[in-house]
């Protein structure tokens, strides 16, 4: 029989999580951040296991997330932001760069970095994804962070038993 690895939704006592949230569109991002903290706590995290960092906007999320991932203290980093399409192409540049920069951190560091950035055409759509109608992106990103942190911990144990490192 083959071996299967699947992360659990239980925060281990030795795991710390960082939430990096954008101040821009704070009406929405504050809802995402609150939901992320709630998800972490409901799955076993104590207040001392959560660090919350605020940055000016979504483009700055990766700049703060990268050193947190590199320091080795965090099981996962949760990036939260909200980019709403305006009447210029600024939205496309910010959304594309934020996504690419955040996505690059996890593979480079081995630390899961979750993309919890809402990209929406309207404020109403963003609010829906911040908990009004369609769940909460912050909650979902936090749950994914917990699962990925557990998966990575299991993979490290497997690699150690095999005589290699992850």
Strand order of the largest sheet: 2-1-3-4
Question: What is the helix fraction of residues, given as a range?
Answer: 40-55%
Number of DSSP helices? 5
Known CATH architecture: 3-Layer(aba) Sandwich
| H-E order | EHEHEHEHH
Give the number of domains.
1
Summarize the SSE layout with pairings.
Blueprint: E1 17-22, H1 26-42, E2 50-55, H2 61-70, E3 76-84, H3 90-109, E4 113-120, H4 123-129, H5 137-162
Parallel strand pairs: 1-2, 1-3, 3-4
Helix pairs in contact: 1-5, 2-3
Commentary on this structure:
This protein is α/β, with parallel strands linked by helices and 166 residues long. The chain has one domain: Lumazine/riboflavin synthase (Rossmann fold). It has helices at residues 26-42, 61-70, 90-109, 123-129, 137-162; strands at residues 17-22, 50-55, 76-84, 113-120. The longest helix is centred in the C-terminal third of the chain and has 26 residues, at 137-162. The protein is globular.
Q: What is the compact description of this entry?
A:
By secondary structure, the chain is α/β, with parallel strands linked by helices.
What labels describe this entry?
166 residues; alpha/beta; Rossmann fold; 4-stranded parallel β-sheet; 4 strands; 48% helix
